[in-house]
Amino acid sequence: MEGFGINNLFLYLILLVALAVGWLLGKRSSFSASKLKPGKNKKLPSNDYFVGLNYLLNDEPDDAIDIFIDALEINSNTLDTHMALGTLLRRRGKVDRSIAVYQDLLGQSDFSRSELNDIKIHLVRSYIAAGLLDRAENLLEELRNQQGEIKIKALVLSANVYQLEKDWQEGVNVLTELLKVCAPARRLRYQNLASHYYCELAEEELGNGHMSKARDYLRNADMMDKSNTRVSMLFGKLENLCGNYKEAIKNYLRVKKQDPSFMADVFSPLVECYQKAGKEKSLQKFISANMDEETDASVLIDLARYLEKERGQDEARKYLLAQLEKKSSLRLMMQALALDDSVADVNIEKDLFLKVLREYIESHAQYQCTNCGFELKSLLWLCPSCSRWGTVKHVKGMLGE
Q: Cα–Cα distance between 333 and 324 in angstroms, integer?
């Protein structure tokens, strides 16, 4: 069969096994017709089953799913099969049809409360996939009032909905409630999530010039997750804007202890705060330590710029060339070339080389998600691909750091 890959084969095997089990259970349940409403005891006709199988083998899974859904009777024994089919439809992008499957299941009166709750959770996921967030929110509000595992599932999905809506305060409220009832093994994940939501709120207040509110949100973010580098970066920015340069320095230096890969993002404001605070000796100590120890290309370039300003262009270029001997980096080479004025006759060629290098480097991602590998050209705290927080880092290698 043309185009029949491993992923399709795996999908079809799962579908075939699920349907076979559902069919057998459906046949068995036909002996208990008294438990079903009139008209709902639909024994699966063998003809329909084989028509569906034919669609499946001819690489037409959507038509196969439709046949099986219509033919398979609806009861507790076949519920898992129906929900699996609804999930398959959602994952294949057929969210409207997936929603219709779950709504049809909810229209039955023969399911237990627990089974109805499971159907509603699946329906919420399809609502979210379809972008029908208001419907998802309304259904989740009902489920959050219950107890046990269903409440936890509803709270997790609610946090997802509020994240999509960028309603960070409601997201924090839901996560606070979730932390009270979730398993201990999940607490760190939800605390990290809440910490980032507080950071989002803080950034909004910073943008509006509300420093006091921003500080309160950052304190809450820090209490939720003291390892969150983003909190330290934002605290440094806030204190810098407020003129509290010593506090800003303390927070920027904390970034290096938490995650050195983000030092490139705070180097320039950190140097600026040292200078504004009049702590020249501390700045020189910081610069000397980093010149000897640093390996991050972005920080090395920042150090070279500092040297150019304080000691001259030749000193900065010598430093970059020394670093190039230790670390192959196109970015370091481009910066060293830009500082080379030793041969005036080749300036035209040099400008051309710089242009080519710059365009080549800028065409490549400078950041990458460590969870899914998604590449970005600028720093985002939430990966657009896998929706994980705090997993985007500087790219490593000759083009990156």
A: 7
Which residue in 178, 173, 130, 132 sits closest to 152, CA to CA? 178
Q: What is the assigned CATH class of domain 1-130?
A: mainly alpha
Tell me the backbone φ, ψ of residue 369, rounded to 5 degrees: -75, 125
pTM: 0.79
Element (H, E) at 376: strand 375-376
pLDDT at 108: 82
Q: Could you tell me the residue ranges of all domains in the chain?
A: 1-130, 364-401
Cβ–Cβ under 8 Å, residues 157 and 178: no
Residue 370, both tokens: 């460590």
Contacts (Cβ under 8 Å, ≥6 apart) of 32: none
CB proximity list for 41: less than 8 A, separation 6 or greater = 30, 33, 73
Q: Pull the structure tokens for residue 186.
A: 């999940």
Residue-wise pLDDT for 205-231, tens only, equals: 999 999 999 999 999 999 999 999 999
Strands (E), 218-342: none
Cα distance between residue 218 and residue 389, in whole Å? 16
Burial class (CB in 10 A: 0-12, 13-18, 19+), 291: middle
